[in-house]
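User: Hi! I'm a student and our assignment asks us to look at how structure tokens line up with a sequence. Could you show me two examples?

Assistant: Happy to help. In each example below, the sequence comes first and the structure tokens follow. Example one:
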Amino acid sequence: MIQLELAGENALILYLSAEISAQNLSQLQQLQHQIRSLLDKQLQELLPSYASLLIVLKPQHQGLLAIKTMLEQQLVLCAASTEQLGQLLTLPVYYHNAWDLDHVAHKAGLTTEQVIELHQAEEYRVYAIGFAPGFAYLGELDARLATARLKSPRPKVPKGAVAIADRQTAVYPAESPGGWNILGLCPTSLFEPEHAGTAKPLMPFAVGDRVRFQSISREEFLALGGQLPQELC
């Protein structure tokens, strides 16, 4: 069921069921295409999340209530397609036990090699982007690797840290505080602010895209432009 509510003077928010699922993601992608077609030049921006879609209108729209009624009447919630939507991005990872790799392995009753293998085995979907530009929430992690966030977040997580929390994984696009369990480092830059105003994308992925991880050596990591934190040098 589609639930559509007012979200300000120039915005509506659309809700699906509250679960995190590939089906919701597929349906949100289909709804985005419909909304762009229906609203055309009145639409300013669409901001998807796990099971919701914020619809931001330009100030000169025809009337929020009229648009809400029109969308409720004309939007069609299609059955989720089994087609693999979105581009596939492969991210290299230098896995290292300097942080939480051993902890995750011990908790799961696995070796570190098995943790690395399971982390690489999945094809993850980009469910949402935040809390920082380029930080993509990727799911779903193999249930055997599900690990709670750290009780005390680290004051400084290195740029490129590949981490897991619960059944999600992500790559920190910049140095920042963080409480996820770090498995390794990725040398790929995930946010390029200098691309603003150009045809080049700010990020290499969007909501709905797919991500895989591929293990690389320390030498390969450095050759790809990766920088090691002081504790690994």
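Example two works the same way, sequence first and then tokens:
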Amino acid sequence: MSSVQINGLWVEDSGGAGEAVLCIHGLGGTSNFWSPVLPAFGERRVIRPDLAGAGRSEAAPEGLSIAHHVERLVGVLDALGIDQVHVTAHSMGTIIAQHLAVEHPQRVRSLALFGALAAPAEAAREPTRNRARQARSGPAALQEIADAIVKAATSAETKAERPVALALVRESVMRQPPEGYAHNCEALAEAQPAEVERLKVPVLLVTGDEDGVGTPAGVAALAARLADQRSYVLQGSGHWTTYEKPFECIRILTDFYNKQ
């Protein structure tokens, strides 16, 4: 496993000459969101970037958008000489993944989307902009945001039985660069749906029964727009699926890739 900077993004690359998987984390995440499910990728080459403004990667001075993220990720693939990838994504990353697959269909072999959403609900857009303003007040605000996300975005079962998962979610959000996190909140608030009806690749959809972002109803509506999909709802899981239900996610992902 190597960690390199490509086009301003820090990227973890497992290496190898086999099929590649591009892993796209969500808002408040980093490349580490995928660590619990790495066994599901087998011998495939796994590419895990920290998105612009997240983790170790700096945000663009002019701000961020879904289109900006798509462009930067295509640049990573070009720099690594990778023509086609399987894409797995979480939360805001699923919006990026959908646009990537629609706009660059020749580059994407499949999509595996966790806590997926087509775009934010209209009622969520202004609160997401407000979160950007809160984040800009500094690291103390990120702690408050992290605590609120742990409370609202994880399941009752996780809160009762998985303290390490709670710590992972809190650490991931709390350590985000404030300005970069704010930029990504604004990118999410402005995100629009991709024309997923155009997709011909197989799509895996996984969400939690207590996921208030990629809700089961929202995922079902997204599934209805897709030509080739399979969907799973994990019982006792909130929005942070790979932290809350890692073994179930590994099983589902492994089965999905074995059928490609």
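Here is something you could point out in your write-up. The domain at 2-258 is CATH 3.40.50.1820 (Rossmann fold).
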